[in-house]
Amino acid sequence: MVTKSGQERFHNQVQWARQYLAWEGFIDSSKRGVWSLTPIGRLKTLDYFESRAVPPKEVRDLRGAMDGRAEKGILLTTGTFSAQARIEAERPGATPIELVDGEKLYEMFKRFELGLKPTTVYEIDLTFFDIFK
After folding, report:
1. Which contacts qualify for 117-126: CB closer than 8 Å, 24 or more apart?
2. What is the 3-state secondary structure (H, E, C) of 41-73?
3. Position 119 in a domain
4. Any domain includes 4
5. What is the pTM of this model?
6. Could you report the per-residue pLDDT of 85-131, keeping only the tens digit for each?
7. Buried b (16+ CB within 10 A) or exposed e, 19-40
8. Which DSSP letter does residue 130 get?
9. Coil, strand, or helix at residue 20?
10. Is 64 exposed, middle or buried (0-12, 13-18, 19+ CB in 10 A)?
11. Which domain covers residue 67, as residue numbers?
């Protein structure tokens, strides 16, 4: 998919996600192409690492932070989203929030080969060696 400006939708979404993380102080945006967590970003990451299910509060917080500044938000996690967070993200009449969990993020990285290289894996057939016993 391509945006009106001609940019691939995925790349556009990643750039906006990075910008929102920088505005909230979760990542350091001082170097082009380098994303590094700030101390606040590390704490947020650790909070989610414990439970792995992002609560609806984070969806509401993102929506509040972008109020009047964006038509849509994207919330990324390497974990999962709680059922309540998914419901909150799709609440009728509210600014839409797209949820990208760890599985979807992996699929996006795999599709665009971002940081991943396809490899061939062979499994050893141990029964082949039975005749040599």
Report:
1. none
2. HHHHHHHHHHHCEECHHHHHHHHHHCCCCCCCE
3. yes
4. no
5. 0.53
6. 999 999 999 999 999 988 898 888 888 888 777 788 888 888 988 88
7. ebbbeeebbeeeeeeeeeebee
8. G
9. helix
10. exposed
11. 9-132
